[in-house]
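Hey, I was hoping to borrow your eyes for a little while. For a while now I've been wondering how a particular protein folds. The fold is given in discrete form, as structure tokens running alongside the sequence. Could you read through the record and tell me how the tokens relate to the sequence? Take your time with it, there's no hurry, and the full record follows here:
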Amino acid sequence: MAEQGFQTSGSELVQATSDVAALVELSELEDQARRLARNSRSDSTWRAYESDLRHFQAWCSEHHLNALPAEPLTVVTYLAALESSHSPSTIRRRLAAISVGHQLAGMETPTADAGVKSVWAGIRRRKGVAPRKVRAARTKVVTTIVAPLGNGLIDVRDRALILIGFAGALRRSELVALDIDDVDEDTDGLVLSIRRSKTDQEAAGETRGLPYGSHPATCPVRAWRAWINASGINTGPAFRAVDRHGRMRSTRLSDRAVADMIKRRAAAVGLDGLFAGHSLRSGFATEGYAQGTPELAIMRHGRWRSASVMRGYVQEGTIWTDNAAARLGL
């Protein structure tokens, strides 16, 4: 008597195996596509978006509203809730995160709604959108900050970070991304290979030269050499965390740690004003303008693509050098 049940032919088994393989391949390609999409923005931007989306989702949950997809009225109400307690720059980023979240989910973004745009315009008009600017760390400031640094490992590291960041007009993300292999020393100074930056997300890469300084205490080349000799690093991340006991870790220093370090070092020498990682880059542009460096040379070295953006860094540098009020005869 023939056995009861399902019987599978050899050809059907081959087809089923082929279908499974195709599904696995499709799943892998989808994962790869998600990774590629994530590479469209920096890791820090994605972290900020994810934090913003969590805040929006929690607010929606508290008020029994859908976060995804969100109705324009939900976003309008959310903006009104943020208006009294958050800066325009934070609100702008929250809107961007909501938009990106909907786009990645294949949904129409509510932030494109005319009502949402009107409320956002009202917030900008009422609160203003001028960012709180950090103080530019010009040459005199940089000299003051590094003057008391000694020969301990963390002092040697911080001196190199500050002087290379200033002379290279580096963003803090570019500074901490440097590997040992990205820094070459030749007879004229240091050659930095900047593999990726905010304006070079496709990682075409650029090189910049940092010449020897006129004063040994503020020379970026000598500071780099001292750090390499003190740390003994010969491969991997160039700048690493150092604990309070002077022990160096193998992990790369974070960009937030650079900002905190500059604030701390500026406060230690009694400097007033808001200092952060951005102060070095701003200070480079400001000092360059004050010294009469051609605008194109400043832009090229600092890798600014837009003259208008770069000029936003240098108002302090031109306020006295080309002042029309000085010609009034008062």
Remarks:
- Strands lie at 183-186, 189-194, 206-211, 240-242, 248-252.
- The CA atoms of residues 20 and 26 lie 10 Å apart.
- Residues 139-318 form a domain with the hpI Integrase; Chain A fold (CATH 1.10.443.10).
- The mean pLDDT is 83.
